[in-house]
From TrEMBL:
It comes from Chloropicon laureae. SUPFAM superfamilies: Nudix (SSF55811). This is Mitochondrial ribosomal protein L46. GO terms for molecular function: structural constituent of ribosome. Residues 60-88 are annotated as: Disordered.
Length: 243
């Protein structure tokens, strides 16, 4: 009856994840802001003691005895990491100023690249299908330090499945589609699950401006440029701590 239809798997529907390593540094400040901060520091040096945030907030008013130490600027992490110099894209320790997304390369045929995805099963919500996609391809139990966070219960976008097309996707009656939910990597170094080694030939952590190297379809490239994030825009350049 109606209950059976509601709990049945949705034909042609898959759930996938945009497994994302967030930027580890905020963008550099624009020149107008660095000029202002230079003027501000100079003004404070003449008019009184200037404690730089966040040291005094973290250490309290009784902070270090040596005021000069608290006024020293922190050095940001270098933007160029070892993996950037070697060209290694199989690590999250690269391009630390942008979002990176996990993509997988299938075995056989042309070896198309895709986001982790699995077909919908009966009685599953879309969120549960996407959780299963992540658990299928990523070994979430290999490290106690590995933490992740699902951003909501609904998808942020959809793409055709491996071997599918956008023309077929637009056919609401027959088209197959993969709904994608963003998942943030909070900490740890993810590893691929051993159960998918027979299906996955390679993997990479890829930035938005590198996606065209992995997804050759022009419509997919155009769509991903709208869907994915590049540099951090959570706080804006006005709060960058890299200066």
């Amino acid at each position: 009856g109606d209950l059976a239809r509601m709990s049945a798997p949705l034909a042609g529907v898959s759930g996938g994840v945009l497994f994302t390593r967030m930027p580890l540094v905020l963008p550099p400040k624009p020149k107008w802001e660095t000029d202002y901060l230079d003027w501000q520091a100079e003004w404070h040096s003449r008019s009184g003691i200037h404690r730089q945030w966040p040291q005094w907030l973290e250490e309290g008013e009784t902070g270090p005895a040596d005021e000069s130490a608290s006024m020293q600027r922190r050095e940001p992490a270098p933007l160029e990491q070892e993996a950037d110099r070697s060209g290694d894209r199989r690590t999250v320790r690269r391009r630390i100023d942008v979002h990176l997304y996990l993509v997988l390369k299938g075995k056989g045929g042309e070896g198309s690249w895709f986001f982790p995805q699995v077909a919908h099963r009966e009685r599953e919500t879309l969120r549960q299908t996407c959780e299963r996609a992540l658990e299928t391809y990523v070994d979430l139990k290999s490290s106690e330090n590995l933490q992740h966070f699902f951003v909501g219960n609904g998808p942020s976008g959809m793409v055709p499945p491996v071997g599918g097309s956008w023309d077929a996707l637009r056919d609401e009656a027959k088209g197959e589609r993969v709904f994608l939910i963003p998942v943030e990597l909070i900490r740890g170094t993810p590893k691929l699950s051993k159960q998918v080694t027979a299906q996955v030939a390679d993997f990479a952590w890829v930035a938005k401006d590198e996606m065209h190297e992995y997804f050759k379809d022009e419509e997919t490239q155009e769509y991903l440029q709208k869907l994915l994030q590049d540099k951090s825009d959570y706080y804006g350049s006005g709060t960058s701590q890299t200066y």
